[in-house]
Amino acid sequence: MERANAWKTYDAATKKAVFDFAEDYRQFISKAKVERECVTESVKLAKAAGYEDLNEVIKAGKTLKAGDKVYAVNMKKAIVLFNIGEEPLENGMNILGAHIDSPRLDIKQNPLYEDTELVLLDTHYYGGVKKYQWTATPLALHGVVALKDGSVIDVTVGEDPSDPVLGVSDLLIHLAAEQMEKKGSKVVEGEALDVLVGSMPAEGEEDEKELVKKNILNILKEKYNIEEEDFLSAELTMVPAGPARDYGLDRSMIMGYGHDDKSCSYPSLIALFNSQNLKKTGVCILVDKEEIGSVGATGMQSKFFENMVAELMDRCGDYSDLKLRRALANSFMLSSDVSAAFDPNYASVFEKKNSAYFGRGVVFNKYTGARGKSGSNDASAEYVAKIRKICDDNKVNFQTAELGKVDAGGGGTIAYILANLDMNVIDSGIAVLNMHAPHEIISKADLWEALKCYEAFLKDA
Predict the structure, then answer these.
(1) What global pTM score does this model have?
(2) Which residues contact 418 (CB under 8 A, 6 or more apart)?
(3) What is the pLDDT of residue 411?
């Protein structure tokens, strides 16, 4: 059952809409590279779309009703948005869930050191990465530094064209004979992913040591008013520098950092904004920490989502613990996460009949997991049939896939966590090439079909 290429179904007006939406997305991921930035940009868009801060609604004692739109932010790294529908929340919600964290290099708490008059920052990689991919490529520093006086300083270096960039050095090929004999996982060790940040010494006494480090600290003090000790309470990370770019001679694709999973989170967000007069309450939840197991206060395993649904029901004048449980169990969810695009360069790890392909639309994974479906949600046949009908009724191009051949590998999403609340959940998203590399690639057609799918789901599920 080969699926049609979506590009073949588009007229000139639709192609223009596809490219316009893709440009909006390209701009978004170029600005929102880490979770805090993604939440900040999402709040801006939400306010422009008429959403109110749920915490402000609670403080004001305001009552909510059908048609009202609210959002809540969790520790500046996760956000949930509600478009209240006509039916009672007890009847369930239609939920779009995605994650906004991506693989990267996190700066350690005691990172700065000088060695042979070079100054480096020590890192700890975050998420599943091929470590060698992060060498010899321009990186930008993003994050915040929290000071003891309670202030928080935003840090971004390497994005403005006038900024310097940073990076991890690689071993020259002339001396790499031993390195090239190593397994891919050992070509570059985790502790070798240190970022070079300076080489020019400050003025000092003849016998004074670590003058290059002193110069870097002087720069940090002058630009951000931070001391070395302030790294202890910082969240700083290295990500690929520069904006996402159109990819391909036909500009049909986008190359950029963080398609996993902003290529799903952004259309989920916009689909909710585009939805009006919903029967069931529409929800978009964007969470942190998926790449390391959805743990912690800002990951999907936290109680944040359940707590906010409880607060929403209370503001609607219809809260009880039993009704909250019913609301969750009666809900439908698309766990919006990316899938592996078939790559003819590496065809041996794919099973062609059950792979995702560029340009064939949004991807549904009935199950994910590894080996014997370990860690998978595995949606029910009835729910898959419901989703098929929604897509067909709304002329959404879609395809189904697995994550490579059986026993070739595997992966997980947030789907199983929401399924633990007894709701129907299926993984859906966009096919990605170079997944988890510093620069990933998606199809603009698939991005557009994801938006159409999410809009149809919120309307008809």
Answers:
(1) 0.95
(2) 95, 97, 300, 333, 335, 425
(3) 74
